[in-house]
């Protein structure tokens, strides 16, 4: 174990903000990682496993309000810092490192390796939020024996990329160049005023430094970012977009479709909550936000940002075509926040998930009083949905 790993393993986590019954620990040798995780319900052996996979810019810590509720219902609840995030080590923190370790299939292996390291044959509950949603989906797609159910949150799963079909007699190239993101960038830049899609910005070399050392300071940036994507910000009135066109995309708030040339820190700064709003934010108090500030202050954002670059990498997209035509056949559930644009940020993805990508999707649930940070904003309502869903499933360890 390196000195850094030793320091992280022995230092107190959460600054006294962890709910009672949660512990922080490191698990070594998980697909090349030393994984930091939070867990609850660990005192009693033989409990069924609930695995919670966070998104961006979140951490295992983001599940802290939900975990005691699931532990009280009888689960051993585990939330890791995913590769690239928090106190998990074993990944290279650089823009110029190869992206393959951050690819969806290797992140799926991370989850599979963690389940195995914990001594389980399968999960009883698998939940993925935001960037954790596609990882959870590929877990269930690739290894339904280990992940026999899945709950996807905020980010719909439209299915794996498809191989060209019935093209043997066509003279045209069966694999068109991967120009979708470039075309979107061009049409958004042509708007008045010119705009840019947030995923494209987050894929740039400058994004890490912009967010790590913003003019307003890291704590103020994170406060504004969490606030503007929550139900606390009155500007969030999400609705389905009709098509993948620039005028439709332009209906989204600037934190999704940014003003061209603006950094994310500049984009969210005008929406920083008032002192009274901060005080009223019982789902993310100042000491709790301080945990995020400390963790991202130490690591920066580059490891977390690699996932956005993975989406536009042609080699890693080609790897996913191994599952071309495969549907998600385990019992599944989608949960969003009523004030979250996430379910609609990829036009058509929600409907594609419901009608084509899954065969056993129980429902699409949107939670009142929640924006993007569902597990922090409305943990009681979320736990009720998760436990009701799980009652229809075989629960075993």
TrEMBL record:
The lineage of its organism: Bacteria, Pseudomonadati, Bacteroidota, Cytophagia, Cytophagales. InterPro entries: AB_hydrolase_1 (IPR000073), AB_hydrolase_fold (IPR029058), Epox_hydrolase-like (IPR000639). Keywords: Hydrolase. One of its GO terms (molecular function) is hydrolase activity. Pfam families: Abhydrolase_1. The keyword Hydrolase applies. This is Alpha/beta fold hydrolase. Residues 51-340 form the AB hydrolase-1 domain. SUPFAM superfamilies: alpha/beta-Hydrolases. The keyword Signal does not apply.
């Amino acid at each position: 174990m390196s000195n850094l790993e030793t320091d992280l393993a022995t230092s107190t986590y959460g600054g006294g903000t962890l709910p009672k019954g949660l512990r922080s620990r490191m698990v070594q040798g998980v697909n090349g990682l030393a994984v930091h995780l939070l867990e609850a319900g660990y005192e009693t052996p033989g409990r069924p496993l609930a695995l919670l996979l966070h998104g961006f810019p979140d951490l295992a810590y983001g599940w802290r309000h939900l975990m005691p509720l699931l532990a009280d219902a009888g689960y051993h609840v585990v939330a890791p810092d995913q590769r690239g995030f928090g106190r998990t080590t074993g990944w290279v923190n650089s823009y110029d490192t190869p992206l393959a370790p951050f690819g969806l299939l290797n992140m799926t292996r991370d989850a599979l390796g963690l389940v195995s390291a914990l001594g389980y044959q399968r999960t009883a509950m698998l939940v993925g939020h935001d960037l954790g949603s596609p990882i959870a989906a590929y877990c269930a797609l690739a290894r339904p024996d280990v992940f026999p159910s899945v709950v996807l949150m905020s980010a719909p799963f439209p299915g794996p990329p498809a191989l060209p079909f019935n093209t043997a007699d066509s003279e045209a190239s069966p694999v068109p160049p991967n120009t979708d993101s470039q075309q979107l960038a061009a049409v958004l830049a042509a708007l008045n005023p010119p705009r840019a899609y947030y995923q494209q910005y987050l894929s740039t070399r400058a994004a890490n430094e912009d967010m790590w050392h913003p003019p307003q300071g890291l704590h103020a940036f994170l406060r504004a970012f969490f606030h503007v994507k929550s139900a606390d910000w009155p500007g969030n009135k999400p609705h389905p977009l009709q098509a993948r066109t620039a005028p439709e995309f332009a209906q989204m708030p600037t934190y999704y479709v940014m003003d061209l040339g603006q950094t994310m820190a500049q984009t969210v700064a005008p929406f920083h909550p008032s002192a009274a709003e901060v005080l009223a934010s019982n789902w993310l108090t100042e000491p709790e936000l301080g945990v995020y500030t400390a963790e991202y202050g130490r690591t920066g954002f580059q490891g977390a940002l690699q996932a956005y670059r993975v989406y536009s990498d042609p080699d890693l997209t080609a790897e996913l075509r191994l599952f071309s035509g495969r549907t998600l056949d385990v019992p599944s559930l989608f949960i969003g926040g009523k004030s979250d644009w996430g379910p609609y940020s990829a036009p058509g993805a929600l409907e594609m998930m419901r009608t084509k990508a899954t065969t056993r999707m129980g429902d699409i649930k949107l939670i009142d009083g929640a924006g993007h940070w569902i597990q922090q904003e409305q943990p009681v309502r979320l736990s009720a949905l998760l436990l009701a869903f799980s009652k229809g499933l075989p629960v075993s360890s």
